[in-house]
From TrEMBL:
Organism lineage: Bacteria, Bacillati, Actinomycetota, Actinomycetes, Micrococcales
GO biological process: phosphorelay signal transduction system; regulation of DNA-templated transcription
Keyword Repeat: no
Name of the protein in question: Transcriptional regulatory protein liaR
Domain called HTH luxR-type: residue spans: 148-213
Domain Response regulatory positions: 4-122
Keywords per UniProt: DNA-binding, Phosphoprotein, Transcription, Transcription regulation
Organism, as annotated: Nostocoides australiense Ben110
Any GO molecular function: DNA binding
PROSITE patterns to which the protein is assigned, alphabetical: HTH_LUXR_1 (PS00622), HTH_LUXR_2 (PS50043), RESPONSE_REGULATORY (PS50110)
Length: 215
């Protein structure tokens, strides 16, 4: 089955480019386009796509608020959201990740990484642009005035390994290959990490890792 995607960006040329790129892949179907946040929210609510690809800065509602409304902790059936931005140190990015986005990319990331992010989000995984993961998350961790929450239970050695790879932007499949373990085992470790760290998703796991200087 195709991955159903809604593309939201207020720049017509950028939006058309994203649609053109995604349309070249047989496993991806663009089912809607939005030029502002209100339209993006409406389409996501009505069409229930597998993935919403949303610009971080849009009129009406920005990408952070759209993400919160379709993927936030209070949403019963959250939609996978991948946010895109022009600036790798955009302050809105942290808000989007906390609002429930499964990943983010720079607009110049290229077709291959864009498609990887869409596929990862559709399967419950997350992808953060590798070239900005460390610098971006570290920058936000340094600015945060709050001390990170300590694990409710100590992390195992294997969980520490998985934690480090998640923080570097690896997908579940890449973690499995690098650690020579099964995909289901990776998912179990990530679920355990979320429970121990009190976070909602793998992006917050990465943020915690950078905040505590684990990587």
């Amino acid at each position: 089955m195709s991955i159903r995607v809604v593309v939201a960006d207020d720049q017509d040329l950028v939006r058309a480019g994203l649609v053109l790129i995604l349309g070249a892949y047989p496993d991806i179907e663009v089912v809607g386009e939005a030029a502002d946040g209100i339209a993006a929210l409406d389409l996501a609510t009505r069409l229930l796509p597998d993935v919403l690809l949303a610009d971080i800065r849009m009129p009406g509602l920005d990408g952070v608020e759209v993400t919160r409304r379709v993927a936030g902790p209070d949403v019963a059936n959250p939609i996978a959201v991948v946010v895109i931005t022009t600036f790798d140190l955009d302050e809105y990015v942290l808000g989007a990740l906390r609002a429930g986005a499964r990943g983010f990319l720079l607009k110049d990331a290229g077709p291959e990484l864009l498609v990887q992010a869409i596929r990862a989000a559709a399967t419950g995984d997350a992808l953060i642009a590798p070239n900005v993961t460390r610098r971006l998350l570290q920058a936000f961790a340094d600015r945060s005035p709050q001390a990170p929450t300590q694990p409710v239970e100590p992390l195992t050695d294997r969980e520490e390994d998985v934690l480090a790879l998640v923080a570097r932007g690896r997908t579940n499949a890449e973690i499995a290959a690098e650690l020579f373990i099964g995909l289901s085992t990776v998912k179990s470790h990530i679920a355990s990490l979320m429970a121990k760290l009190g976070v909602r998703n793998r992006v917050e796991i990465a943020m915690w890792a950078h905040h505590t200087k684990r990587v």
